[in-house]
Amino acid sequence: MAAHTQPGRPNQLFRNLNSKIASIPMMLTAVVIFLGGTIWTVVYSFTNSKLLPRLSFVGLEQYERLWDTPRWIVSIQNLATYGCLSLIFSLTIGFLLAALMDQKIRFENTFRTIFLYPFALSFIVTGLVWQWILNPEFGVQSVVRSLGWTSFTFDPLYNSDIVIYGILIAALWQGTGLVMCLMLAGLRGIDEDIWKAARVDGIPMWKTYLFIIIPMMRPVFVTTLVIIASGIVRIYDLVVAQTSGGPGIASDVPAKYVYDYMFFAQNLGQGFAASTMMLLAVAIIIVPWAYLEFGGRKRG
Amino acid sequence: MDKSLTMPASGPVSRPGISAPAGSRLETGPQGKRPRKVLSSRNIIVYGALGLAAIYYLIPLYVMVVTSLKGMPEIRLGNIFSPPMEITFEPWVKAWAQACTGLNCDGLSRGFWNSVRITVPSVIVSIAIASVNGYALANWRFKGSEIFFTILIVGAFIPYQVMIYPIVIILREMGLYGTLYGLILVHSIFGMPIQTLLFRNYFVSLPEELFKAARIDGAGFWQIYFRIMLPMSLPIFVVSMILQTTGIWNDFLFGVVFTRPDTYPMTVQLNNIVNSVQGVKEYNVNMAATLLTGAVPLIVYFVSGRLFVRGIAAGAVKG
After folding, report:
1. Residues B68 and B265 sit within 8 Å (Cβ to Cβ)
2. Is A57 helix (H, G, I), strand (E, B) or coil?
3. Which fold has domain B109-316?
4. What are the domain boundaries of chain A?
5. Which of A45, A106, B107, B192 would be A273's cystine partner, CB 3.0–4.6 Å?
6. What does the entry list under GO cellular component (chain A) (predicted)?
7. Residue ranges, chain A, pLDDT below 70
8. Which backbone phi and psi does B259 adopt, to 5 degrees?
9. With an 8 Å Cβ cutoff, is B1 touching chain A?
10. Choosing among B7, B161, B266, which should be mutated to test the A contact, i.e. which has the most A CBs within 10 A?
11. Is the pLDDT of residue B280 over 50?
12. Cα of B193 to nearest chain A Cα, Å
């Protein structure tokens, strides 16, 4: 592609000038906001900025205080629980739905429309609907009780031990449709002959899925995993809408911690340190993936 | 779709209206007739499972609609799944025109119009920038262009919380903090990675000869963009419009950080109405407000159908 420009180079800077001018917004965004903003935040996380950012370095003090704060520990635990379960369930449910959808069924479009519509809704709407359904006074709990099972208890949003599962239910409702779509695209990309061969060899269907199809879909799984994982670290709106972090701090998540410290507690240094930890979490997910994906491609 | 195989008249065991057998992909293999009973039991499992899943996905929508049409006395008595005995549209009117957030009591309509004023320019600006960027990256690469693009794509994975405060400072310096312009700028910035990727991939997939022919005829950067690329890329414009419209409409974090209470977008206002602590909770009004906020992306989704699926697939699976 680079061959559009002539090999003789009169002046490096003015070659392809229009393209460079047109790319200025992209360059600014990439360098100033994404790169510059990230570096700025990381640098200021080593200062003791309170109401306003100040460059007075205190080393790792903010991080020490961060990991001494119970609220941060709770939010990290919530994120870990929510993240693991969300990954497992959305991959499993998404794949199962996709496998069912791939049985040459009728009404495929109808089913797809139904499974995917929550994805078009915002997390705020999702959170508020599920807050209402899980409301112990009127929702599922009271309905089951009115059917005769009077000791039935299901109030995840008011019980700090299980509140994160209440959020998980809502998140799965919102997000599994997307996973299903990605998986279905992956299943459709698999050669029909594979199925024929497995059929001829008399391999049962579930074995074909488990030992042939799923290993073949590795790239789809990896991409889906990265998408889900980077969404998990960001989770914020859903918690705000569904529980506002409550009861107490029981359903707090890192993104909410960051926001509260930056804009309410007037403790910028803590906010920066916490957001740097979020960045680190994402890096742990992204770097190996990028290395496998792009490092491998260049060599191969 | 390649749904070419349908069974002849279905037996008495299989359910009416369903004639395509579940395992019909296997029917293409070399084999004899299958006993019909096995097929229909598989049918029952497949459709049963899909049906149950569909119910789970539909229940919240159903509950929202039903609750929003009931009066408060009925909500206190009945269960949330029962259909309304007396349909009333009062909650909808109240949610739209009277619901209170703080001192304002003019309902969600304020948030709705704020969201419109945010979404429309943001979509236009971000798509304009991203399409030109994608075009430059696909057809006019220059030294370093791929580096910027890589930073952009990696940047898409950075949590927003990391970059929010520097942006607050930049916008404050520019005098745009708290204004709609500032928020539009923010949406354009954060929409850029995925949109640029979308357009770049689309332009790369167009035949290169077109571009070369235009170059030989003496067309320049902008001429080729406006005369050749733009008219050819209507589908991708529609896809990216769908993505951006739903994405920006559904945003909460940027709305709450970069605007003031009187310019809050709909999602923020909705959250404030429903989760406000003072006053009696009016669940029917809350659900009507929730449905109103969800209506715009839902309409976009139902109208666009397949294009929406294509958009998220293109946005999600790179390459």
Report:
1. no
2. strand
3. MetI-like fold (1.10.3720)
4. 70-299
5. A45
6. plasma membrane
7. 1-13, 294-300
8. -125, 170
9. yes
10. B161
11. yes
12. 9
Q: What is the DSSP string of chain A?
A: -GGGS-S--S-TTTTTHHHHHHTHHHHHIIIIIIIIHHHHHHHHTTB--SSS----B-TTHHHHHHHH-HHHHHHHHHHHHHHHHHHHHHHHHHHHHHHHHTTT-SSHHHHHHHHHHHHHS-HHHHHHHHHHHT-TTTSHHHHHHHTT-TT----GGG-TTTHHHHHHHHHHHHHHHHHHHHHHHHHHTS-HHHHHHHHHTT--HHHIIIIIIHHHTHHHHHHHHHHHHHHHHH--HHHHHHTTT-STTTT--HHHHHHHHHHTS--HHHHHHHHHHHHHHHHHHHHHHHIIIIIHHHH-
| B188-236 pLDDT, tens digit each | 999 998 889 889 988 988 888 988 999 899 888 899 999 989 998 888 8
**What residues in B contact A254, CB-CB < 8 Å?**
161
A298 touches chain B (CB under 8 A): no
Scan for tokens 């992956």, then name that residue.
A186
Is the previous residue joined to A247 through a cis bond, with omega within 30 degrees of 0? Answer: yes
The predicted pLDDT at position A296 comes to: 55
Domain ranges for chain B, please list them.
1-51, 109-316
CA distance B132 to B268: 32
| The predicted structure's pLDDT at residue B39 | 60
| CA angle, A109 then B64 then A153, to 5° | 105
B152: nearest CB among A29, A108, A115: A29
CA-based nearest residue in chain B for residue A255: B161
A21 φψ region: left (φ > 0), alpha (ψ -120 to 50), beta (else) = alpha
Compute CA distances B68 → B65, B92, B280, B286, whole Å.
5, 7, 16, 8
Q: In chain A, what residues touch B166 (CB-CB under 8 Å)?
A: 33, 36-37, 40-41
User: Cα separations (Å) of A87 from A90, A93, A168, A170, A232?
Assistant: 5, 10, 10, 14, 9
Tokens of B6: 């349908």
Is the domain covering A70-299 a CATH 1.10.3720.10 domain?
Answer: yes
CB distance from A268 to chain B under 8 Å? Answer: yes
Nearest CA to B184 out of B121, B129, B133 is that of: B121
Which residue from B140, B155, B188 is facing A30, i.e. has the nearest CB?
B155
Q: pLDDT tens for residues B7-17?
A: 344 334 444 44
Rounded to a whole number of angstroms, the distance from the CA of B207 to the nearest CA of chain A is 12
- Under an 8 A CB cutoff, do B317 and A139 touch? no
Candidates B58, B81, B208; nearest CB to A114: B58
Q: In angstroms, rounded to a whole number, what is the distance separating the alpha carbons of residues B291 and A23?
A: 40
Residue A119: phi and psi, rounded to 5, are: -65, -25
Residue B237: Cβ within 10 Å count: 15
Name the CA radius of gyration of chain A, rounded.
25
**Chain B residues within 8 A of A263 when measuring between CB atoms:** 257
